[in-house]
Amino acid sequence: MLVSACSKNEESSTSSSPGPSADASATPKSAPPATLRILTENNTSWPPKADWGVWKWVEEQTNIKVKQELQTGPESLALAISSGDMPDMISVFQSDVQKFGPQGAFEDLSKNMSKMPNVKAFLDKNPEEKARVTAPTGEIFNLYNSGAGEGSQMIWFYRDDIFQKNNLTPPKTWEDLYETAKKLKALYPGSYPFVFRHGMDTLNTFGPTFGFYPEVYPDPADPAKVKFGLQEPGAKMLVDWLHKFQEEGLMPPDWLTMDYKAWTQFITTNKSFVTVQFIGQLEIMNNQMPEGHLKFMVPPIGSGSKPYLPKAGQEGYGLAVASTSKNKDAAFRLLDYLFSEKGKDIQSWGKEGETYSVVNGKRVFNSTYKEPNDLRIVSGIQTAATYGLFDFNAWLSLVKESEREAYVEAPKYRFPVAYTRPSLTPNETAAVSPDNDQIWKFWTGEVSKFINGGRPMADWDKFVGELKSHGLSNIMTTYQKALDRQNANTK
Amino acid sequence: MDLKRSSVLRGVKRDRVYLLLLAPALLYFILFRYVPMFGIVVSFMDYNLFKGVWHSPWVGLKHYRTFVHNPDAWIIIRNTLLLGLYRFIFSFPAPIILAILFHEMRWKRFRRFVQTVSYMPYFLSSVVVSSLMLMLLSPSTGWINKAIQSLGFKPVLFLQDAAWFRTIYIGSDIWQYAGYGTIIFLAALASIDTQLYEAAKIDGANRWRQTLHVTIPGLIPTTVIMFILHIGGIVSVELDKAFLLGNAANRDTSDIISTYVYRIGILSGSFSYAAAIDLSIAVVTMLFIYGSNKISRRLGETSLW
């Protein structure tokens, strides 16, 4: 009811051109000054700075001064909320919203759409996004960033120079991958030809090519049904392969505890030749390597006939407004700016003369920015809470011509469904969370044993049966119910 | 009655300086130890952060039942108790032995040097210690495994094997805390009357006999007090190291009550459930301390209260 009432009011102001008319209302002259505290991630690869351009441009455009507060660990958000002194705005993942939204931590944005015409226009234009942010009870507790999802895609890449030198071709299947790794191990005995650094989470990347994600996800054959990936035959095949790689020293024995630094060392010192990693790391590594070259690799086929990467493109991170904030109007103004065309442009590119200049009708970033990641390090562009809509062309413009291939190729191999779960009500969350923990603990423990050889692969079917005694049926019915409800609401 | 009150008042007046000295500590305990105890009521409610303690619905023992019915509960409790017990058995005597060795060292300068070096690890945070462990024990790049391999053995998956977790945890604990722990025992050793040693020497006791009959008995009262204080620690194993060294492969032994409470309570926001688990553990800890105090009072004269 409320939403439809709001939309009527806005018809007149936003129907013709939503961008400019809305921006006009947010010019610094007419907007009262405000200061907003925003809780965001603390990423050591692009340490936040108070003088980042992104915050300066926000202030110029909206008259809002942003004070960035940093999360020190995964518990920071829970502590900030329970402390009674929540920052005005908070960077959130879906799981955070499910936990704290229904308890009353975040403002219901659906009731404030009249103050955010650009946000409303964006959600109306993108019903899939709207369904994603709408809670089972109808509230909108957060907005997801949009436009930079391509940058968080996980891809495969390999050392094409080493392959060429040794007359090897990039593997097309996991069988090939195994044979190639054996050859490489023979050629470079001290090496671990295949390396990855996200431990058990890497199964999310490998899984699709075997037709599954590890836990709950929508069935690719019938997206109205939920599935539990470890029950799929593909899961057994993947784990069996990883066991072989581990047993024969083709991947590092400490694959489970590998961190970024160790991974970097393996890649840059000729110790590893095939890997999976975030798409941006391909160029970063190529720039860091004293010699040699990495190249995008088509994901090797696991089972079935198609090579797949996880479905990417959507972002899972976004912004919520604290229900206790005293600056809600400023927060809505900031959100609306971030979702306006002007906000999209400035928060992605910065300002002409300051960050880029126009050469032959094309925008070119100035020399401070040498590779895409410098956008984050120097100006904070494309970091948490600094954008709503992102123009990915800004990022791409800094990707070297020779490194563009990955961005063109990766989208061709997307798995039909994304690794997402439907939203739960607070009661459902409370009822399912001990079971979720139990089954996660069980399967990650057992699968690591299968891979490391602590449990024989012959036991796999028994393991799949054991999943049932760890709360599986409660988990499945809960998520199926939630998915049914979500589907009914979107229709 | 009157007489009693006036004697209390007189006592307060007489000891005012000492009481004033006590005040900051007392205030600390009231503010940070007793006031938060009120929070245990949330374990009997479906606590909602925004409704608060006054408006959240009461649910009785629901969360306690959930914990008891969780098949992981027993594993977590067993892991915690075993880790605490092993830590107690192996870490508790370490500073005593080290203190006696320091005491017996005759070359004063060397002794001071070794002592200082042994204190150092105490000042490292668990985060640093854990990453040191990760680096040293890595089967692909760690020094320890390189040494093992150079002797012709296969690398050991220290941190990816549930069987190694307790050894690593306790070993690093001893390395970190034994040196610093000697301080209190060295103080106790310093207070042993030198005449006792002289008398023992006259009686013909050699160094070993002196240690056995003078040094060790002299340490017993301090040891008993420390023993009782440590008993409480059996159940309250710290979160940091278990969390940082834990992973999917060693979770069979590394998942303990505090890591579980952190995961369930803080990360997944089930405050009531986590509070229920914590309170159960606190009760067990109290029983441990109370029991050991009672036993030590029966057996000897030394006790906490």
Q: What's the SSE blueprint?
A:
The complex is a heterodimer of chains A (491) and B (305).
Chain A: H1 2-14, H2 18-25, E1 34-40, H3 53-62, E2 64-70, H4 76-82, E3 89-93, H5 94-100, H6 117-125, H7 127-133, E4 143-144, E5 154-159, H8 160-165, H9 174-187, E6 194-195, H10 203-206, E7 216-218, E8 226-228, H11 233-247, H12 260-268, E9 274-278, H13 279-288, E10 294-297, E11 317-321, H14 328-338, H15 341-349, E12 356-359, E13 362-365, H16 373-379, H17 392-398, H18 405-409, H19 426-452, H20 460-467, H21 472-490
Parallel strand pairs in A: 1-2, 1-3, 6-9
Antiparallel strand pairs in A: 3-11, 4-11, 5-9, 5-10, 7-8, 12-13
Helix pairs in contact in A: 1-6, 11-19, 19-21
Chain B: H1 2-14, H2 16-34, H3 52-55, H4 62-69, H5 71-91, H6 93-104, H7 108-119, H8 126-137, H9 143-150, H10 162-190, H11 194-202, H12 207-231, H13 239-245, H14 251-254, H15 257-267, H16 271-299
Architecture overview:
The complex is a heterodimer of chains A (491) and B (305). Chain A is an alpha/beta fold. Chain A has 21 helices and 13 strands. In chain A, the strands form 4 sheets. In chain A, strands 2-1-3-11-4 form a 5-stranded mixed sheet. Mean pLDDT of chain A is 89; it is low at 1-26. With 305 residues, chain B is an all-alpha fold. In chain B, helix 5 runs parallel beside helix 10. Chain B is flat.
